[in-house]
Amino acid sequence: MSTRLICLPYAGAGAGVYRHWKALSTPDLTAVPIQLPGREEEFGLPFHPTFEAAAQSTADRILAAVGTDPFVVFGHSFGAALAHGATRELVARGGPRPPPGPPRAAPPLPPPA
């Protein structure tokens, strides 16, 4: 069973900033970019009116993406704040949660070959 690496973009960006990470996925770790409304292929959808609404919607999208698979959540800048908010929402619902541990910074990935 592959762990899903949920990827949340920084403010103003779409999930496309992480799409090349999918090519770097392994049998143990699969990158799953999460698109936010109003970006790229969801350009016509309205933005969330509040951060709480964004966290709730992102929690829903995470659940849809992971199913019953284990997962971790990564976000850059605003994406990190959204990752925290969505994870808090999942915990409040009694839903699945990523494994415990302190937040970590990761070295940048090399560009795709």
UniProtKB/TrEMBL annotation:
Residues 91-113 are annotated as: Disordered. It comes from the Bacteria. Residues 4-95 form the Thioesterase domain. Residues 96-113 have a biased composition (Pro residues). Pfam families: Thioesterase. Transmembrane segments: none annotated. Signal peptide: none annotated. Belongs to the thioesterase family. This is Thioesterase domain-containing protein. It comes from Streptomyces durocortorensis.
